[in-house]
Design a protein that fits this description.
Blueprint (H helix, E strand, L loop, with lengths): L1 H4 L4 H20 L11 H26 L5 H14 L7 H12 L10
Helix pairs in contact: 2-3, 3-4
Length: 114
């Protein structure tokens, strides 16, 4: 994640996180009970963890970027609270708000090409 954030826009990382987080439960739906753990269980666990990490990390960076310096701690606390409270409700309301806000800002996580 740390290596990718310097070269990829934040919205791309957010989309990857959403896809991975959405893929994890789908792998549990199509699981074959006779298959080994490595066929379905392990990829599901990896997708769920990496997806959540991508979403939370890119969301935190986005909040830090759009908030004023004197309000970054409040914005980060609000993001963290909403992420924990809204987690059980699909589709994640916080992600919908972030995606809407990201579309309105053109300077997402642009790479500085100096």
């Amino acid at each position: 994640m740390a290596l990718a954030i310097a070269h990829v826009q934040g919205i791309v990382l957010l989309i990857i996180g959403c896809i991975m987080t959405g893929l994890a439960p789908l792998l549990f739906v199509v699981i074959d009970p006779t298959a080994t753990y490595w066929a379905y269980g392990f990829p599901t666990a990896i997708a769920a963890v990496f997806g959540a990490d991508f979403i939370f990390a890119s969301g935190s960076l986005f909040v830090a970027k759009v908030a004023r310096p004197d309000e970054q701690s409040v914005a980060g606390g609000l993001f963290n609270t909403l992420a924990q409270v809204c987690e059980p409700f699909p589709p994640h309301p916080l992600l919908l708000l972030l995606a809407e806000r990201m579309e309105s800002i053109e300077l997402l996580f642009l790479v500085d090409d100096r």
